[in-house]
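Why do we bother with a discrete structure alphabet at all? Because it lets us treat a fold like text: something you can write down, compare, and reason about line by line. To make this less abstract, here is a complete entry for TIGR00341 family protein. Read it the way you would read a sentence in a foreign language you are learning: slowly, and without expecting to understand everything at once.
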Amino acid sequence: MRLVQMAVPPEKHDVVVDLLEDRELNYTIADETSNQGAESIVSVPIETGDVEEFLDSLREVGIEQGGYAIITDVEAILGERESGTERTAQPDTTPPLEPFTSNRISREELQDTVTEMAVITPSYVFFTVVSSIVACTGLLTNSPAVIVGSMVIAPLLGPAVGASVGSIVNDEQLFRTSVLAQGLGLVLAVGSATVFAYLIKFTILSTVDLHTIDEVVSRINPGALSLIVALGSGAVGAFSVSSGASAPLVGVMIAAALIPPAAAVGLSIAYWSPVVLISVTVLLIVNILSINFASLGVLWIRGYRPTHWAEQEIAKRTTMKRIGTLLIGILIVSSFLITTSININQNNQFEEDVDSIAAESDVRILSINTSYELQPFTRTPTAVTVHAETDSNRFADRFRHRIKNRTGADVSVTVVQETVVTSNVTSGTPTPMQRSPDELDPDKYRAGNNTHRYPLPRTISSPPR
């Protein structure tokens, strides 16, 4: 529900009243005197989805030239009310997209809202820098909770949606401001993360292998599903703002697609990891393009257009051109994500084949680990480590040959030979086992059957040839 308050000049008073009566809207009128002379203040409570159509009707009768309107949010209305917006039940003949375009705020309210959110202020700079530093800390400490916290304080929703609103309503000033805010935000995020990572490098952690940090590795070699996250973020962000819903929670989702990758870019620069740098940069670019593309599409489908018909054709051409540009950019960058997705499936198949080979073996396999060499968009299996109960010195060679014959990959195989020693104890006195006294662990002795696993002090390796 919204409350529309209009300052109506005397010559438009009767026209506005007739308009309100025709629409069967409840209204109140107060006569006031201002620095613009005598005028009437008309207050009209109206449903949120009907505000834009009502304002267009006011423009048609000339209220835009001789007066102005203020729109405020109404928390509640006490008492019974009758309004032309309460329609009698009729057969449902609405177009398929009608539910999607209803219950949205007016273009004027949307434009004012995102204009305030997209302004570059000291607060915007401060929160962007702090969120990037916090995200960088979360990546270094491998803490998902800290990374989520960095998303909460990132102020990136306004610029992302503002550029789309500027395009659709033909507000070039809003579009340029929002694009500038997005660019500045990314520069601040990457720059502050880089400076912070350098400070950490020269004071606390001189060497860090980024490939061993799970939160960083999860953003290396991003697959095609990463595109879904970014598209969903942009779509939900635009839908939320255009519905007048609370923005901070939705802003977290947009920040999730931008802040951690930006912080990872800074880390990869400071600790110089080209593989990480290329991968997370591609992820960051595709997320930016996808968020703007989805936001633009959602607002267009929801029916937002410029106020005057002369601007609508210009806005349509501009919007279609920008949608096409974003789509081409997404398709180009997404080719890398598709390559990564194919490689992920190949690696999953490789691991399944290795497990199958292990299951076919007459040796008891305890665990299998596969090591990979990371490239910017792919991972290549290089080594397989097998923990097995075997005394055969040739098991590693046989296992490697089976992997090569089935998968075509010539990887090194390392077998860690393990043995299981079982003690049968029938009383409180432990039975000696054939091990040295140093190996015994008194805390693990219990009456009954106890099984202990001890790795042998040697491994057997079969390098690729």
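What the structure line is telling us, in plain words: The chain has three domains: 2-87, 107-339, 361-462. Confidence is low (pLDDT under 50) at residues 83-95, 426-457.
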